[in-house]
Structures are given as structure tokens and as C-alpha cells.
User: Which sequence fits this backbone?
């Protein structure tokens, strides 16, 4: 019973951390919650895909349906990844808070994401809305595996550098399995690109700041999520 209670606490913490709600669980529960990140994000993606499919059935057209799916993802995340992107340029220079350039970059990235999703046909759109948030959440687990907490505060201090092999392997098993099952050969491309983006940001953060922060974890999640949607949109255009 104690093990089941701990697993349920980890799932609740994963939902809170990924949806922008306050996570008040003990540190070991927050760290353990990382194993559920891809699964929880996949659930958010399923909701977004459902929103997009329902919108298209109501006659909005595929373009607006794709954009609404992205906005559903944004709402599910509670705005935290977007704030991470806005703070990224200043954070990599060792400064606090988002600057005008960061806000502009975050807004532009959202625009790119909306345009890419709007160009996706139905089946590819569903795959994108499922895989993008899941791989973005998986990227956070990768960032938290090894290394030091650096300047991380709050819940991020309980995550960065505290992921064990259980969290890394469990999250990777779900992310890899679902990606390859849904996208097959294209899934391998998505996994490689997501890994490269994740490692690149991690190296930059450790080189410039000596570690990751909560805002940088959010930025990683958002950058990978956008990357997946854009790549799938480009590949879909080549097949039409």
C-alpha cells in the first residue's frame, strides 16, 4: 500500500509540474515523478488532438483545427514553457527575468508552432500533437539526469541532477516506444533531433551558468515540442 501511495503521489506531482500548478510534494516524490512525465504529457497531447479533431468535425477546416490543437497544448502547460523561452536569452547571459528580445523570441516561436500545426493534414496533425508534448517532457527528464542543480530554485532544485536510472530509463522506454510505434522510421529522426536539441541546450547551460534552472527546463520542453511539430509539418509537405 505504501508503494502504491507513493506512485500515486508521483503521478499527481508529474501532473502538477507539467501543467503549471504548484507542486508541494517532498523532494523525493518530485524527482520520482519524472518517470511519469512522458505519459502525462502524452495524455495532454491526446486532449489537444481531440480538440483539433472535434474542431475540424465542426467545420473549422484543418488549418484552424491544427492551431486550436496547439493552443490546447499551451493551455495544458499553463504557460510555463513559454515563459522559459522568454527568459532563455537573458538566462544564458546570467541575468534574471525575460527581456524584450526573449519575449519577442517566445512569441515568434509560438507563431512558428501555430503555422506548422495549421499546415498538417489530419493524421500527421494527430501524431504531432501526441508526440510533441511527450518528447518535450522526455527532454526535461534527460536534462535532469546527472549534473548539478546549479542555480535551480523551487521545484526545479528537486529535479535537476536528481533523476535516477529508474526515471531516465522508464521515461525513455515510454518516449521511444510510443514515438517509434506512431511515426515508425520518422520517429527515429524525431528522437535524434530531440536528443540533439536537448543536449545542446544542456551543454550551453552548464558552460555559461554551471547548471540548469527551472526556466531552462521549460525552455527545453518548449523548444523540443516546437521542433517536433515543425519537422513533421515539413515532412508532410514533402509527401504532398
Assistant:
Amino acid at each position: 500500500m505504501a508503494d502504491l501511495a507513493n506512485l500515486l503521489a508521483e503521478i499527481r506531482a508529474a501532473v502538477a509540474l507539467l501543467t503549471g500548478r504548484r507542486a508541494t510534494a517532498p523532494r523525493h516524490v518530485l524527482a520520482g515523478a519524472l518517470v511519469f512525465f512522458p505519459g502525462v504529457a502524452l495524455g495532454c497531447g491526446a486532449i489537444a488532438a481531440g480538440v483539433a479533431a472535434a474542431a475540424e468535425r465542426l467545420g473549422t477546416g484543418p488549418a484552424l483545427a491544427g492551431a486550436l490543437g496547439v493552443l490546447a497544448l499551451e493551455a495544458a502547460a499553463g504557460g510555463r514553457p513559454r515563459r522559459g523561452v522568454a527568459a532563455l536569452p537573458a538566462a544564458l547571459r546570467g541575468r534574471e527575468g525575460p527581456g524584450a528580445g526573449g519575449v519577442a523570441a517566445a512569441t515568434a516561436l509560438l507563431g512558428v508552432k501555430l503555422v506548422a500545426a495549421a499546415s498538417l493534414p489530419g493524421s500527421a496533425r494527430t501524431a504531432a500533437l501526441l508526440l510533441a508534448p511527450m518528447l518535450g517532457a522526455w527532454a526535461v527528464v534527460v536534462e535532469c539526469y546527472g549534473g548539478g542543480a546549479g542555480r535551480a530554485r523551487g521545484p526545479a532544485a528537486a529535479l535537476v541532477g536528481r533523476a535516477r536510472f529508474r526515471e531516465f530509463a522508464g521515461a525513455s522506454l515510454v518516449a521511444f516506444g510510443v514515438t517509434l510505434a506512431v511515426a515508425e522510421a520518422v520517429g527515429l529522426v524525431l528522437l535524434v533531433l530531440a536528443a540533439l536539441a536537448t543536449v545542446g541546450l544542456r551543454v550551453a547551460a552548464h558552460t555559461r551558468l554551471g547548471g540548469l534552472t527551472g526556466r531552462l527546463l521549460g525552455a527545453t520542453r518548449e523548444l523540443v515540442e516546437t521542433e517536433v511539430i515543425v519537422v513533421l509539418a515539413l515532412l508532410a509537405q514533402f509527401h504532398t
